[in-house]
Amino acid sequence: MFEQVGEQEIEFLDGTSDPYFPTFGAKDAVEDVVREFYAYWASFASRKTFAFAEKYNPNDVRLFLFRHSILTPWQDSYNRQIKRAIEKENKKARDTARKEYNETVRVRLFLYFFPFPC
User: Fold this and answer.
1) Which of 14, 29, 62, 69 fits as disulfide partner to 33, beta carbons 3.0 to 4.6 Å?
2) Distance from the first to the final alpha carbon of the chain
3) DSSP-assigned letters across all residues of the chain
4) 34 vs 16, 24, 30, 37, 57, CA distance in Å?
């Protein structure tokens, strides 16, 4: 699972970051390798953009205005304040998606390697 997450993250590296994602290692792995694995994945922070989580297209202001009862269907106004509101709402949605994704990776780390007894 963690190898897949690492492969997905490589697409979003900015060129200055190291594309290294530690693996758990074999059953006879040195303790330092295991510690490095847990340290990295326990503090994992995704580099993905999470653009898919955006609610509105900043270029389609009419939909935003209509949904928020700011614009009646026949009006056609556009201004910077509305665009900023859209960008703010989209950033909030991206941040929420990023936080949930990071938490999912961390929780899976602990559930995978420290399963609850049945």
Assistant:
1) 29
2) 22
3) -HHHHHHHHHTT--SSS---------TT--HHHHHHHHHHHHT-------GGG--S-TT-HHHHHHHTTSS-TT-----HHHHHHHHHHHHHHHHHHHHHHHHHHHHHHHHHHSPPP-
4) 26, 6, 7, 5, 43
Query: Rounded to an integer, what distance in angstroms lies between the CA atom of residue 94 and that of residue 55?
Result: 9
Provide the residue ranges of all domains of the chain, joining segments of one domain with +: 2-113
pLDDT (tens, 9 = 90+) of the chain, 118 residues, equals 777 777 777 777 766 666 777 776 667 777 777 788 888 878 888 888 898 999 888 777 666 666 766 655 545 445 677 778 889 999 999 999 999 999 988 888 777 666 666 5
Name which of 96, 92, 90 is nearest 54 in CA terms: 90
Neighbouring CB atoms inside 10 A of 57's CB total 11
